[in-house]
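Readers outside the structure-tokenisation community will struggle with the description of the input data as it stands. I therefore recommend that a typical entry be quoted early in the introduction. An entry of this sort, consisting of the sequence and the corresponding backbone structure tokens, reads as follows:
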Amino acid sequence: RDQLVASSHIVEVEAGTVVQSPGETISRLFLVMSGTLHVVHSDRAGHRRIVRIIGREDHYGLTELALDCPARHLVEAAEPCVLAEIPFDVLRRLSVECPELQRSLNQALARKNAECEHLLISLTSEDVVTRVVSYLLSLPRLPDPEGHGRSLVRLPVSQADLASHLGTTPESVSRRLHD
């Protein structure tokens, strides 16, 4: 852990900053310390779709590390972010020296794979209400400041961005959140 921290570089980026572009050679893992990143896919017609929302204590770049491939998507800051950048060469070296780190990297990849499978199933077989509820339940819960025993969540993205991520329209998301 100490070697990872010592090898990381802290970067602050403003909302709208492109952190990486498709096809770009990637040499570092991004760990989000604060803020939110969007992983965006653009089709040939120029339509953008948010395929992943990366929040605090989440990361991006493990697939590129594991497959030794260029960036597959655009990654941009949805809001001001503080990112820790960890060079791939450091991760590779330390994962050989520390089997526990390698196991953690493998588990993180497996969790991301399971999340992708869940999203794919959700998009192809569930209605919008179920997708919205499922997304809300995946968010960290906050205690109710009024003490009514409820849990609260902070929607970390705009309704339009959530709609893009869930494969529906902003109007549908707005109606479902209102309901």
The chain is about 45% helix and 25% strand. Residues 50 and 165 are 5 Å apart (CA to CA).
